[in-house]
């Protein structure tokens, strides 16, 4: 969705994962990450994919004209992550420089995206409404709402 919005508005698409992850799935520190993101946001317009609030605080939120919260059901998220991860493992798709998903890391690791989703999904649903109340935002809860939103926004 973020890529589609960036194309529609003819602005850069900034994928925070691409800026955050170093080779070998090494995480950037907040001190390393913040100036990289600040530099990426230093342009007239952009669409950012991600938030990394634990590393960036409100940096992205404070500069955004609109926050789009994709609040899909857990089952939808799990299904999409499973399909995407399975494809990436099978094709050895290179992510963010030199990183490649492996069966072990994707499905059996404590750092698994699936475990992260299960730990954060319900907590985010409880905390984000209050946090986002201070920002212009839209909460999209289904693919139908996403499609409607995409057809309604104009550059």
Question: How would you describe what is shown here?
Answer:
This protein is α/β, with parallel strands linked by helices. The protein has one domain (2-152). The protein is built from nine helices and eight strands. Strand 2 and strand 3 form a beta hairpin. The chain starts with a helix and ends with a helix.
| pLDDT averaged over residues | 94
Shape: globular
Largest beta-sheet details: 2 strands, parallel
In terms of per-residue confidence, which ranges show pLDDT below 50 for 5 or more consecutive residues? none
Helix content: 55-70%
Quickly describe the structure.
The chain contains 9 helices and 8 strands. It has 155 residues and is an alpha/beta fold.
What key phrases describe this protein's structure?
155 residues; globular; two-stranded antiparallel ribbon; alpha/beta
Set down the secondary structure blueprint.
Elements: H1 2-9, E1 13-15, H2 16-20, E2 21-22, E3 26-27, H3 30-40, E4 47-49, H4 53-56, H5 59-63, E5 67-70, H6 74-91, E6 94-95, E7 99-100, H7 103-108, H8 113-132, E8 137-140, H9 143-152
Parallel strand pairs: 1-4, 5-8
Antiparallel strand pairs: 2-3, 6-7
Helix pairs in contact: 6-8
